[in-house]
Amino acid sequence: MKNTSFKKIVLLSVMILATGLNPLYSQDNTPNTPEAEFIALNQNRMEILKPQSRPFMVSQGKKAPTAVLIHGLSDSPGSMVEISKIYEKKGYNILTVLLRDHGMSDEELRHEARAKVKLADWRKDIDKVMAIAFKMSDSGKIALAGYSLGGALATDTADRYNGKIASLVLMAPLFKMNHGWAAPAARVLKHVKYSIAKGIPEAPHFYPDIALNQTQQAYALTKHLKKKVTKNAKEELKALPKIMFLTDADSTVENDFAIETAERIAIPSDNIIMYNTIDADTIVLHRDLPMRRININNKTNPHIDELLARLEIFLSDL
């Protein structure tokens, strides 16, 4: 592959499956570059993933501010495309996390993975991407962004990597779930083929349901955050530049608790943005917040352009 100096987006599905790129080499024909490591990290599972659920990377071709983006429960990096464009515009290297129990096209493989996954596994998946991201960062710090479960995991990651995070962007973070009642049942029924339906058909980038075991693991994360992270937040977390986006139509994330948590971790009130429903045809739930289109009816998300503009201003002010 020719050596290039321009910005480059690495879409694994295109690079590995379409162009025949040797995944052990990067844009400068040098093995063991961060770009090559990211491809190697993901290449063995590419064939079992839905194309629009596959992880992707945006490389500036050099060390630069670097962001790690974390998707929501039953979702995938496909939901982070619009957000990634703003980070790319601001000169960031971008890496996305695909949690191991997400993105699969085969229902049997999907059920097996969702029934076995643990919170510790999600953290390991993030840590592998973080290790690559640090090699691409020009500051030794990483910007984190996540929505829903990804927002909670981003907050957890900021705590675990205390002092090594540059900024934190939270979109409908799952600090407390409205269907947490399912968590106790999941301890007993986690291997049963039962899930909580989202009320929408399956899409290229997400599943239409949430497995009971996933609910239990998400619940364990929310309990940990409440007791160990946000109740008495570390000064580094409080000082971290942060912004949070919410939608009033959310049926999964408990907004009042999210706002209380935002205050405990010192998110400025001007950086807590609540989007209100405009009309019945454009109701934006938490799963729609970072998307250009509303999942259930494919109508344009009326908040997305303003959200992206606010994100760009936030990043410009860092």
Report, as a whole number of angstroms, the end-to-end distance.
35 Å
Order of helices and strands: EHHEEHEHHEHEHEEHHEHEH
Mean pLDDT across all amino acids: 86
CATH topology: Rossmann fold
Helix content: 25-40%
CATH H level, superfamily name = Alpha/Beta hydrolase fold, catalytic domain
Overall structural class, as computed from helix and strand content, comes to: alpha/beta
**Reading side by side through the largest sheet, how are the strands ordered?**
1-2-4-3-5-6-9-10
Relative strand content: 5-15%
CATH class annotation: Alpha Beta
Structural domains: how many: 1
Number of helices: 11
| Spatial shape | globular
Q: Which segments are poorly predicted (pLDDT under 50) over 5 or more consecutive residues? A: 1-7, 11-29
Largest sheet: 8 strands, mixed
Radius of gyration: 19 Å
- Counted beta strands: 10
CATH architecture: 3-Layer(aba) Sandwich
Describe the structure.
- The protein is an alpha/beta fold and 318 residues long.
- It has a single domain (8-316), classed as Rossmann fold (3-Layer(aba) Sandwich), CATH 3.40.50.1820.
- Helices cover 37% and strands 15% of the residues.
- The strands form two sheets. Strands 1-2-4-3-5-6-9-10 form an eight-stranded mixed sheet, sandwiched between helices. It has a two-stranded antiparallel sheet with strand order 7-8.
- It is globular and about 50 Å long.
- It starts with 7 loop residues before the first strand and ends with a helix.
